[in-house]
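Translate sequence into structure tokens.
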Amino acid sequence: MLDTNMESENLLFWSKATGTFLISSAVLYIAWKKIISKAPKKDHPPDTVILHQIGRGPYAPSMTPYAIKLETYLRMANIPYENVHSYTPSKKGKFPWIEYNGENIPDSEFCIEYLNDKLGIDLDKDFTAKEKGIARAFQKMLEENTYWAFAIDRWVYDKDWTACKVMKIPTLTGYFIRRNMKKMSYAHGMGRHSPDEVYHIMELDFKALSDFLGNKKFLLGDKPCQADCSVFGLIGNAYWQSFGSPVGSTIKKYRNLCEYCERMKETFWPDWDQCITHGNTKEATK
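Result follows.
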């Protein structure tokens, strides 16, 4: 009789556990499908880049630095483009990505390389090989190292779920993103450090960039280079969209980096106010 009761209790427990798991999974799946639902198809003019990116940010044109990087490049290179704001990812599962005359290209850097080759664009033609090497080194420092400090700060350390609220991501999906970010940052290496160590590494990157920039208008001098698009995307997100975290207070220690952000904004984003939601108080019009 005792064995029968125990079997019944075990069956009841696993039924409840399985049911809870299935319900939670279903809710998460529905929320995620809603987020990545495809935007309706629209006819676009030929020879126009279709830039797929998530919606506009509250204080900068995007919450992802790579979308700002790519859109700044399109403006710097004077390439006609149209935005498609949705959560439909590229075939690599990343944002942003582009379409050009029927071809789909994922990853911001590969998008830029593709357009440079396709359209014969060279934003760095006036710089020496040494200068271009230095610019790439700083770009990769920011994209492959500093970025992870930003990502951990935004998705792991922030207990108020600010990014989820701004991007209108359901909290349940936010937990999924946070868990994945912890795994990815740990695999990268940055996530193995303490918060103090992460912010220390980030500040050393800021200082290195600030020391090299000095009094120059742009990364390599009076004229912007291609790497400025990436530098602006990363540093601009820290400057405008750190939401009160140590990322924002740290970058504001470096006056020339802040002035650089404002200069890039004035040079390539005269319509900046139309491309942000002003703290989610209104819809961006571009």
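Note: The beta strands are 49-53, 81-85, 97-100, 103-106.
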